[in-house]
Amino acid sequence: MTDDVDRNRRHFLTVATAVTGGAGVVLAAIPFLSSLKPSARAQALGAPVEVPLDSLEPGAMIRVIWRGKLVYVVRRDEAMLSRLPETDALLRDPESEVDQQPPYAVNEYRSVRPEYLVVEGSCTHLGCAPLPEFEVVPAENWYGGFFCPCHGSRFDLAGRVYKGVPAPTNLRVPPYRFIRDDVIIIGADTGAA
Question: What is residue 35's predicted lDDT score, i.e. its pLDDT?
Fold first, then answer.
């Protein structure tokens, strides 16, 4: 009978020690696993950004920060849109063949709707922020667009790069979609029209 009591006691102590040790491992792992989850700030930086367009006048531009990147939203007027074909012969990639835009922006306007251009405001050469220069200077073959002050790269009003400049490719088009006629969301393109 003493052997039975000792066996039962050993079995109980073994199970109790295993359960206590397992609970300790789980409790010690919780803070470690919690530290792997992104912080609220990091989650907010990667979240889509809603941009209201109702106050954006034709011919004007606004700047938005999405995922730590500068994004330009330009409302092109009819004159700006009509000048786009005039630049084709001056551009390195007029058909936007390099994969730098979502499929719905592979068109002459590089946008979901011709009126609105949405591009990352980062030169594809070394990452400087190109300046908007929408004034036309035909003598210099300039029909409006973006000029990078760092090394002289030029982009047209669709964000397409000119020939003979340091930037190798067009400005990137981030994922975006219209959630209403006067609001876009940058960073989510599910259901883009």
Answer: 67
